[in-house]
Write a structure and sequence with these properties.
The protein has two domains: about 90 residues, Phosphorylase Kinase, domain 1 (2-Layer Sandwich); about 160 residues, Alpha-Beta Complex (Aminoglycoside 3'-phosphotransferase, Chain: A, domain 2). About 35% of the residues are buried. It is globular and about 50 Å long. A hairpin with a 2-residue loop joins β8 and β9. It is α+β, with helices and mostly antiparallel strands.
């Protein structure tokens, strides 16, 4: 368990009086802690090893941009690095993530997910400085593979037993010839969207936000809905989003790409 005494000086002083609780939800490579203290606002602290594949600087930049775009997300409070670890302190959004919001029916949750994605996808792509088109993302996927951080034991069931090299070859050979570009969340799974009082209250874990094909989000949302609620709620999600007959090849492609992230 982490404590304020283990933090870089200024950050430790700022967080005096807080209790640290590990948050195990999600697939981020960073360790995430929920911070609570008597009479103090709830916060989240993320910690990762410093290195070429760190994502906390990316998340801080994207949260700043998203806030400036008037869409709800955590506020960046502080960033620190001691050379070995990077630290990101953000505000906590009110409410519960869509995977855990058991007070709401699953149908209501998938409809809220669709609406949140629509709001994000309506942003003008010319305003977004983060380019995640395939010409940018495929080299990053290859670098992660070459760096040995693609977990072949965590592949989706349909791809278990295959090597990362085999999957990357498929990414190249199956690459779509065009992209329907929008501002995407990049990891559009139910735990990364928060609801409060039955209303959407914000986007979290935004380190992969950027301009990409809308299927980057649709594919991962469909997979997350199936995993959490069953396949029957995928179609209501797609209808609410306005894509009742999606391209199955694109769904498969962007789920394949996600194996590298």
């Amino acid at each position: 368990m982490i404590s304020p005494q283990a933090l870089p000086g200024a950050l430790g002083e700022r967080l005096s009086g807080y209790r640290f609780e590990r948050d195990a939800l999600g697939r981020s490579a960073a360790s995430v802690f929920r911070l609570k203290g008597e009479g103090l606002p709830a916060l989240y602290l993320k910690v990762e090893a410093a290195g070429p594949f760190g994502e906390l600087a990316d998340e801080a930049a994207r949260l700043g941009w998203l806030n400036a775009s008037s869409l709800p997300c955590p506020e960046v409070i502080a960033r620190e690095s001691d050379g070995e670890r990077n630290w990101l302190l953000v505000s906590a959004l009110p409410g519960t993530d869509l995977a855990s919001a058991s007070a709401l029916a699953p149908l209501a949750r998938v409809e809220l997910l669709a609406e949140a994605l629509l709001d994000l996808h309506r942003l003008p792509i010319t305003s977004c400085p983060f380019d995640h088109r395939l010409e940018k993302r495929l080299p990053v996927a290859k670098a992660r593979m070459d760096g040995g951080i693609v977990d072949e034991e965590d592949f989706d069931p349909a791809r278990l037993g295959k090597s990362a090299a085999e999957l990357f070859a498929a990414l190249e050979s199956m690459r779509p010839t065009d992209e329907d570009l929008v501002v995407t969340h990049g990891d559009a799974c139910l735990p990364n969207f928060v609801v409060s009082g039955g209303q959407f209250s914000g986007y979290i874990d935004c380190s992969r936000l950027g301009v990409a094909d809308r299927y980057q989000d649709i594919a991962l949302a469909c997979r997350s809905i199936t995993d959490n609620f069953g396949e029957a709620l995928v179609q209501p999600f797609l209808h609410r989003y306005g894509l009742p007959a999606p391209d199955p090849a694109r769904l498969d492609y962007y789920q394949l790409l996600d194996e590298f992230f």
